[in-house]
Amino acid sequence: MAEISDSILVEKALSGDVLAFRYLVERTQQMVYQVSFRFLRDQHDAEDAVQEVYSRLWKNLRKYDDRIKLTTWLYRITVNHCLDILKSARAKTRTEDISESLADHFPEPHQVLERRELLDQLHAAAARLTPRQQAAFILRDLEGLSVSEACSALDMNEGQLKSNLYYARKNLQRMIKIEMLRP
């Protein structure tokens, strides 16, 4: 059976078809959760963010422009919501474990520990980036979005994205070097 396009599902959802909206959610839920988790680094906060993102999607579905991919629009909603959460909680620092899905499997326990420590340092450093640098880094380097997809999701032009990504990588490299020099 051919997969139904997002545009058709949106049209059906707008006409009251709850199953069509549910299918949209099921189709995109993992992506929204992963992006939320990468920003928030907490399972419960990410789950709450997913709920809010889909609530916002439902409320704003009439504003959807089918000239852009629904996933790109969802990235934008998700990133904006996560940045709002981070702005309101900037004073709090989180030191929770990185999701096991981010850690590669190594045969030796010390290699697993080293990798986890490096990922912890990377995420702690990423949390200290500016919101725009953090968003560019997460969408391009962690989520693997193309330049055009990330630009659209972040409402940036290509130059702004590349600049934010350059400074994010430079700042991360500097912060991790400093951290590694500490006794």
From TrEMBL:
InterPro entries: RNA_pol_sigma-70-like, RNA_pol_sigma-70_dom, RNA_pol_sigma70_r2, RNA_pol_sigma70_r4_t2, RNA_pol_sigma_r2, RNA_pol_sigma_r3/r4-like, WH-like_DNA-bd_sf. GO terms for molecular function: DNA binding; sigma factor activity. GO terms for biological process: DNA-templated transcription initiation. The keyword Transport does not apply. SUPFAM superfamilies: Sigma2 domain of RNA polymerase sigma factors, Sigma3 and sigma4 domains of RNA polymerase sigma factors. Residues 24-90 form the RNA polymerase sigma-70 region domain. Residues 120-172 form the RNA polymerase sigma factor 70 region 4 type domain. Keywords: DNA-binding, Sigma factor, Transcription, Transcription regulation. Belongs to the sigma-70 factor family. ECF subfamily. This is Sigma-70 family RNA polymerase sigma factor. It comes from Fulvivirga sedimenti.
